[in-house]
């Protein structure tokens, strides 16, 4: 079961508290100085590190994969779960050893943890020279220069306008086939368990023309798939006069035009039928039928939606300040099935053991899972985060052993549903995009279908970046297996 859980991104209580991370790679373009970035948490953080690398590249830095060789080390941090912050603090002690042998090294903490803790990081972690929040990355060269003169610096100003639309990201850890495009920043939702609105600020949307230009550039460089990225992509809203959603909503009659998420999705889909388009994350209160019909209109918009529910009980959802109830959520799922069909992939986030959750309310989450039939989910037990509404208003009163047991039941339920959903694909023909060799054998390739499921096929006369039409022949809870029908079929 443990291996199965890891394979399908369904994680145990301990693993749910852990965090993924990525590091920079070795780059030698002749620049005089070296930058090392270690990024933790969500895909938005990884995307931000690409922006940071671009800014630093323009200021004389190549990247390195060895922090001992770096002139500047950045930790791009996450505050969503406690384990992430603990990991970052431990890494700072590792970097301290490197700095003792290289005193001129500059160490900075970036991102959500920097925004949440600010000056405390300079006080508590004496090794830290620079603390910079997600909206202040343009100031990094100045802060680094100041730190090298012995002046520690903090810039955690949260902007109402910054989107970094004019900065071409340096692609880090790229496979050359799939890439993420940040379309907006911040979040206005104020879910009671979440720190994001406090660490990333208010929602503001990026100029759609810069987004399309980035997609066109990626396609011209050989990329075959882009994922449009935002905390809540469905609330994307932009006009030439205003990119801050809260302010734009008050003056829609005063602006020349408004581009919503459905409009943007169509604009990116029209770049090429050979460029797949995905997006994440959707909020159940905001996803519209217009978006679903746009997805239906274009074959290259993948039929997969990550639609986090968090809980299947309406009272708990109200405590979470999710602004929808069980009935509303199930209505949105039904709309997805009615417009996009049963084959559309749906995944979710779940929180087990939120404040005051009863056994009956936990059962509501399990019954909702049976109704929706998620293809896969990301599941956690509740971990109180300082500064959130829940930490201020509610007692974290569910014992840890109860949280773990409830999480285990959710994991078990999802395992059953994942296998059930995958069995429905057996015998069907599906178009997959090959992303690389299988993790288990270089005699197999792995790709993903439209519903975001991994499909394993035998190695043959094709390569990563090719589209392949396959017939699904078998499955596990985590994976589909297929045989080749056609390589690089004509796409409409």
Automatic annotation (TrEMBL):
Keywords: 4Fe-4S, Cytoplasm, Iron, Iron-sulfur, Metal-binding, S-adenosyl-L-methionine, Transferase, tRNA processing. It is an enzyme of class 2 (transferase). It comes from the Bacteria. Residues 423-486 form the TRAM domain. It is found in: Cytoplasm. GO terms for molecular function: 4 iron, 4 sulfur cluster binding; metal ion binding; tRNA-2-methylthio-N(6)-dimethylallyladenosine(37) synthase activity. Binds 2 [4Fe-4S] clusters. One cluster is coordinated with 3 cysteines and an exchangeable S-adenosyl-L-methionine. GO terms for cellular component: cytosol. It catalyses: N(6)-dimethylallyladenosine(37) in tRNA + (sulfur carrier)-SH + AH2 + 2 S-adenosyl-L-methionine = 2-methylsulfanyl-N(6)-dimethylallyladenosine(37) in tRNA + (sulfur carrier)-H + 5'-deoxyadenosine + L-methionine + A + S-adenosyl-L-homocysteine + 2 H(+). Signal peptide: none annotated. [4Fe-4S] cluster 2 binds at residues 187, 191, 194. Its EC number is 2.8.4.3. Its cofactor is [4Fe-4S] cluster. It holds the Pfam family TRAM. [4Fe-4S] cluster 1 binds at residues 42, 78, 112. Monomer. Belongs to the methylthiotransferase family. MiaB subfamily. This is tRNA-2-methylthio-N(6)-dimethylallyladenosine synthase. The gene is miaB.
């Amino acid at each position: 079961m443990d291996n199965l859980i890891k394979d399908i991104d369904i994680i145990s209580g301990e693993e749910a508290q852990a965090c993924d991370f990525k590091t920079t790679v070795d780059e030698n373009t002749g620049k005089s100085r070296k930058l090392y970035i270690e990024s933790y948490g969500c895909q938005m953080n990884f995307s931000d590190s690409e922006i940071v690398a671009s800014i630093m590249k323009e200021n004389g830095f190549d990247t390195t994969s060895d922090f001992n060789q770096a002139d500047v080390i950045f930790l791009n941090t996450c505050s969503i779960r406690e384990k992430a912050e603990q990991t970052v603090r431990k890494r700072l002690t590792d970097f301290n050893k490197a700095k003792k042998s290289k005193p001129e090294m500059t160490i900075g903490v970036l991102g959500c943890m920097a925004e949440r803790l600010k000056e405390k990081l300079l006080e508590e972690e004496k090794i830290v020279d620079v603390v910079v929040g997600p909206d202040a990355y343009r100031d990094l060269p100045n802060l680094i220069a100041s730190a090298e003169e012995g002046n520690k610096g903090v810039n955690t100003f949260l902007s109402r306008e910054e989107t970094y639309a004019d900065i071409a990201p340096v692609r880090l850890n790229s496979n050359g086939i799939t890439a993420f495009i940040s379309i907006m920043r911040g979040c206005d939702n104020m879910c009671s368990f979440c720190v994001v609105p406090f660490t990333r600020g208010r929602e503001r949307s990026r100029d759609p023309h810069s987004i399309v230009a980035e997609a066109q550039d990626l396609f011209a460089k050989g990329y075959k798939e882009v994922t449009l990225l935002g905390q809540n992509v469905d609330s994307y809203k932009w006009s030439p006069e205003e990119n801050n959603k809260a302010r734009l909503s008050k003056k829609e009659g005063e602006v020349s035009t408004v581009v919503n998420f459905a409009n943007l999705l169509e604009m990116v889909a029209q770049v090429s039928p050979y460029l797949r388009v995905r997006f994440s994350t959707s909020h159940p209160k905001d996803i519209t039928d217009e978006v679903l019909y746009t997805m239906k209109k274009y074959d290259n918009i993948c039929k997969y939606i990550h639609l986090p529910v968090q809980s299947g009980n309406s009272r708990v959802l109200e405590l979470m300040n999710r602004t929808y109830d069980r009935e509303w959520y199930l209505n949105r799922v039904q709309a997805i099935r009615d417009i996009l069909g049963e084959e559309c992939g749906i995944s979710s986030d779940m929180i087990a053991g939120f404040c005051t959750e009863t056994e009956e309310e936990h059962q509501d989450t399990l019954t909702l899972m049976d109704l929706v039939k998620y293809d896969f989910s990301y599941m956690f037990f509740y971990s109180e985060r300082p500064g959130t509404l829940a930490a201020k208003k509610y007692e974290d009163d569910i014992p840890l052993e109860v949280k773990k047991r409830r999480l285990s039941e959710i994991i078990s339920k999802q395992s059953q549903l994942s296998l059930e959903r995958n069995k429905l694909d057996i015998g069907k023909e599906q178009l997959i995009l090959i992303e690389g060799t299988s993790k288990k054998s270089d005699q197999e390739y792995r790709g993903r279908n439209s519903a975001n499921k991994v499909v394993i096929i035998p190695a043959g006369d094709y390569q990563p970046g090719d589209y392949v039409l396959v017939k699904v022949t078998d499955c596990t809870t985590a994976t589909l297996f297929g045989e080749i029908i056609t390589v690089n079929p004509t796409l409409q």
